[in-house]
Design goal:
- This protein folds into 2 domains: 155 residues, 3-Layer(aba) Sandwich (Isopropylmalate Dehydrogenase), CATH 3.40.718; 119 residues, Isopropylmalate Dehydrogenase (3-Layer(aba) Sandwich), CATH 3.40.718.10.
- The longest helix is centred in the N-terminal third of the chain and has 20 residues.
- The protein is built from 12 helices and 12 strands.
- Strands 3-4-2-1-5-12-11-6-7-10-8-9 form a 12-stranded mixed sheet, with helices on both faces.
- 41% of the residues lie in helices and 18% in strands.
- The protein is an alpha/beta fold and 334 residues long.
- Strand 6 and strand 7 form a beta hairpin.
């Protein structure tokens, strides 16, 4: 069977990335869905196998074409850039941060060249990236530059609930000023187009409200009356499948039940709380708007439990499955 090939980055070697990777790749469900090539250091992944997944053995390669993808084998494209004796598990390290970034660079080149069909990323640590003098704060910014894209969309998915984000890493007090007609009229069609490329061609995009109860017609907050509702109406008049604003205390539940194809969340925690409360371990992130599909777990390096055998791998499993499920459709529609 010609399974999709997923390029999976090791993440920060001092974090939980290596552990959750070997645990996820031991899953029969994952093995039946995709061929996974880990971009990282074979010494780190060998140590992770010894500690957390004795059922697999490692095969290191220097190029993707040499990977065999046989049962019981963990395939690693060995960058030899993270000597386990040069970083401490659970600690911020510029050395580990640099290695994590190099894994992202190599895996991104693989998907851009067509060697792999989608990119999946294990967690990195922002402090370690900063200590490595890497000029990007996180994955999204790195992939924007490496993929030659501008302002890619973020979509969360868990148990059928899909959530886009109008704004991301900004202070809550600054969000209101970003709720502009122009921003909504840019993001609404982009979200719907992204859903179409993922194969989700039916259903409406629901725009969440900003204030409690959508402001009760301006009684406490006027963003809904002044900006959000008029922008949604303008988009609907242009033939777009969008409704709103809908109270944020109900719209996510309704979308989870299938009433809407996705929700456009207006700020970071509004959507994060909804998805992670529904199922924290299975919430995954998709970066859309790049020349390729990127998926990832939606948690960090968890330095407090790194290399202790305590990390839950369900999110990594789900992110690999999502890359396999959506990757080819995304690439075919580009």
């Amino acid at each position: 069977m010609n399974l999709p090939l997923i390029a999976l980055t090791m993440g920060d070697p001092a974090g939980v990335g290596p552990e959750i990777i070997v645990k996820a790749l031991a899953s029969e469900k994952v093995r039946k869905a995709a061929r996974v090539l880990v971009y990282g250091d074979a010494r780190v992944m060998e140590r992770a196998l010894a500690n957390f997944s004795g059922g697999l053995s490692l095969h290191a390669v220097s190029r993707a074409a040499d990977a065999r993808f046989e049962p019981g084998i963990l395939e690693v494209l060995d960058l030899a850039n993270a000597d386990p004796d040069r970083f401490e598990p659970g600690r911020v390290s510029g050395y580990a941060g640099r290695a994590a970034f190099e894994c992202i660079e190599a895996a991104t080149r693989a998907v851009l060249s067509g060697e792999a069909e989608a990119l999946d990323t294990a967690p990195i640590n922002k402090e370690s990236i900063h200590a490595a003098c890497v000029p990007f704060i996180g994955h999204t910014e790195m992939l924007e530059a490496l993929g030659g894209s501008r302002d890619p969309l973020t979509m969360f998915e868990t148990l059928g609930l899909r959530v886009f984000f109008l704004t991301r890493h900004v202070a809550l007090r600054d969000v209101s000023a970003l709720l502009t007609r122009e921003r909504f009229l840019e993001y609404i069609p982009r979200c719907l187009a992204a859903l179409g490329r993922l194969g989700v061609a039916e259903g409406e995009l629901a725009v969440a409200g900003f204030n409690p109860h959508c402001g009760e017609h301006g009684l406490f907050g006027d963003e809904e009356v002044r900006v959000i509702a008029p922008a949604v109406e303008e988009a609907r008049a242009a033939g777009l499948r969008v409704v709103g604003p809908i109270g944020p205390d109900s719209v996510f539940h309704q979308a989870h039940l299938g009433r809407y194809a996705a929700v456009l969340s207006l700020y970071h925690d509004q959507g994060h709380i909804a998805t992670k409360t529904l199922d924290f371990d299975r919430t995954i992130s998709l970066t859309l708007g790049l020349p390729f599909l990127r998926t990832s777990v939606d948690h960090g390096t968890a330095f407090d439990i790194a290399w202790q055998g305590k990390a839950e791998a369900l999110g990594m499993e789900e992110s690999i499955l999502a890359a396999a499920r959506y990757g080819r459709a995304w690439r075919a529609s580009s």
